[in-house]
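Quick entry, no commentary yet.
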Amino acid sequence: MSTYIAPIRDMQFVLNEVAGLEEICALPGNEECSVDLVESILDEASKFATGVLDPINSVGDRVGHVCKDGVVTTAPGFKEAYKLFAETGWNSMPFSPEFGGQGLPAVVSMAVNEMWKAANMAFGLCPMLTGGAIEAIAHHASDELKQKYLPKMIEGTWTGTMNLTEPNAGSDLAAISSKAKAVGDGTFLVSGTKIFITWGEHDVAENIIHLVLARLPDAPPGLKGISLFLVPKFLVNDDGSLGKRNDLICASIEHKLGIHGSPTAVMSYGENEGAVGYLIGDENKGIGYMFTMMNHARVNVGLEGVGIAERAYQHALWYARERVQGKIIGDTSGEKKTILHHPDVRRLLMDCKSRTEAMRTLAYYTAANIDRAHAGNAAAQVRVDLLTPVVKGWSTEQGVELSSAALQVFGGVGFVEETGAAQYYRDSRITTIYEGTTAIQANDLVGRKLAREKVPGAAMQALIAEMTADAEVFAANAQLAGMAAHLKNGINSLSTAANWIVANYESAPAAVHAGSVPFLKLTGIVVGGWLMAKSAAIAVRHIAAGTTDDFYKAKLATANYFAAHQLPFAAAYSAEMTGGAESVFALPESLF
């Protein structure tokens, strides 16, 4: 069985040479960060991922967790791993030093978080949800709530959750029916049932801080009448110590296709008098506040696509180097060779490697723009808003495809659980669903981020203009000219589809949304291709300067592969976007 090894060399390349880490470290508030410090952080994180999280990944999958009388016991090793995780400071990396955080840039956390997700995705969900809750509290809660809850959450002593979904309200948050009523002392009593609550109950931390969407009695209907409440598992005394158990319970845990090490809870609030909660921000503004948490989670779920693809690729590569099977097509030596020499196995592995590198570069590039936006760069925030649904939607779809491709390398034994290949495939499948399905991400992209933008299509056109200018530069280099030609074709396909969306959205919104997922995939492929071409241009410069580092030769090879094998799909997705709507609606409902 292979062991996960963090791809630190590629991570450093993307951070330093594509995302601009040195520039990010020079931004206001990041003065304590340096390239050397980040290198040390990545080395230590790699050791933790390989030595602590990877060994309990399969245990979490096989054993899972147990719920008895509302008490959840996590899989063997998870509690000890989380204790060490918190004690060594990994939970506090990106958060404000005011509340005990380390204040490191988002792009640094992005690289480290990839390791957690690759080594043990089920474990990584716990700090991910806690991080989202911290962001929501930090941005929108009162100073009193911040002082009371953030230090313990940032240090990892307490964890956090988001509670949106209800049995009658899946992605339709307007249908939420959970209630909250004011007591008169500044607190509220919350009642209702929430489902699909990731790490909603567990034994790894002292307290769990739930962020719960609910309605006040006089709230207007729909999304405009939803408020956000902080509801702790244990009430917290004024001195910070834990008080009595709140009126909430884990009614059950879900039995899932994958991520068995992550307890997904059905949470019941107010079985008796009501769970004590504290209003975050203003009444009826909860949806906007929760989106702070959701946008944090969406980028991080996109990173799960990167991590699971990387882990599945490493496992498949290990097997391909070990397994001797069959005659190699075109080989006349008569020697027995491993399946790594079979042409289609090479194709599968190149697919995994090149597409994972493209996803990683997109995720880190977006995180770097989050850092620039935090420093006041308005254009960077526009770019983050545009790319967030792409990072989430495209990367998770890629993760499912690539974990499947990696399993294919194993052949029949990949379908057998003992090899471990099936776990990555099963674990990946949820990523395209939670934190907003791929369709929801695509609807956000074509609707809010494109057609209903203040100047429709402006953000996309700015990105297209930047990619086009780079493509012209690449075309002038003989080593990049072929790649540039593929990139130009992809950019033209993206531009055609984007213009069609803007031109047709008002008159035919259903037709636009019928092709929104293909458009999201089109955007991911073209932006990923652009970033891979930028990576290739950097590699060419190093090679021309006489480097002996084979890494750059490998980067040039994977970038060329992505251009030749992925960018041609752009034309097909563009055609599907602009000319496929009529056939979507052609079949009467009675004939389905």
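second:
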Amino acid sequence: MSIKQALISVSDKTGVLEFAQGLAAQGVKLLSTGGTAKMLRDAGLAVTEIGDYTGFPEMLDGRVKTLHPKVHGGILARRDLPEHLATIEEHGIPMIDLVCVNLYPFAATIAKDGVTLADAIENIDIGGPAMVRSSAKNYAGVAIVTDPEDYAPLLEEMKTNGGALQLATRFGLAKKAFTHTARYDSMIANWLTGLDEGVEAEPEAAAPVPAIFPAKLQLAFDRVETLRYGENSHQSAAFYRETNPVAGSIAAYTQLQGKELSYNNIGDSDAAWECVKSFDVPACVIVKHANPCGVAVDSSLLRAYEKAFLTDSTSAFGGIIAFNGEVGIDIVNAMSERKHFVEVLIAPAFTAEAKAALAAKQNLRVLVVPISRQLNALEYKRVGGGLLVQTPDNFTAQVRDLKVVTKVQPTLLQIEDLLFAERVAKFVKSNAIVFCGDGMTLGVGAGQMSRVDSTKIASIKAQHAGLDLNGSVVASDAFFPFRDGVDVLAAAGAKAVIQPGGSMRDEEVIAAADEHGLAMVFTGARHFRH
């Protein structure tokens, strides 16, 4: 199919002039609308404005311009049906062989502070989606271009094929086009269904903040890669990224080297990265099976790594390591000295020397992820036949949040460690118990059905690592339902505890802390993580 006439009408004008010039150089006639036509004409291209083409001017403030039989007839006519060809010839409708359209910037409009419903409505494209869908439906005879990234490859293919685009190319463009309009409509639907009732009565007034949970939720993701397998080798898997992922999320990774990431690698990397980026000071997090097995902060990343490794060197083998600063050769050498086998190494940057040394470890996956504290607006968890949706756990205790409930007051050093322990516990699977001291984890108990069992496991982990719990502090992700957990941690040597409180037996638990001479503080916020 040779391209003889193209219609170009875009909001995002990135690269469109060069694309139009490339089409014109291959003898393609150009049709266009409004601002796009002016831009092309100012650049010296011969272009016919759509109103002159249809014989009907744009009207209703531009709401109606391409909604015309001469446009859609030229797009939708089937080239293989004589009756279609006879009909458009009878009405003097030329063929339109290529349509280049992208849509009104609805996303940019609703992102503005104080956007009104009226503003949003005016930025809902009508003619654009109609042309996109018409062209995509008739891909057998029309090429629909919605992505500026396709401009250069299409021009090259046309040069190679005498001005024609292959059927496979047109079909691929059609699939991309239908995805484009589906996402556009989904975005509009999500925003409108999230508005408060009654807003339609005053469309010029500033629209209220859309509801967090719209009545109808549409989601859009792009496949990044098909993975070797899922959690287990008999399961198939793929990794999808949101169309606009949050800055600094694991989805924004760049892989510098190493084997392909697996399903479990990505899940564990997310756990490590979300934890390490929550610290303001140099920090290292080591994760195994989605749980931190070693976390530490210090004056340098090297010291933080050395302390994190001490927590549980056995579990650290084959784990994921994340740093919140630039990794240098000192850290790479420290890992080598310990013969520390690692699946994935993550940081916002690596020095040239570190990169050169890591290159020798060909299987080690090295990821660069930009640092950002921004959180996803919503979190999702798939269940059978449905989807659980929640806002993120964005509470991290500060000194002002602490309520001392025991006779013994925590020292300033204990408060510092308690806040560190609470931040770590937030990323440990429930029931979570974390012993800490001197800015490092000493024992981590995770994912147990009983909180007292988590406490015992954390204590045992510390003993196996040869770490002294005398004088340590403890964080619990949720309240102690009974005093037995407090008895266990006190017997292990802990001297201060941070927990949310809120149990029916808080008085009993506080009394137990007083018996053992422990300092206990409540935060009022739990951190269940399932």
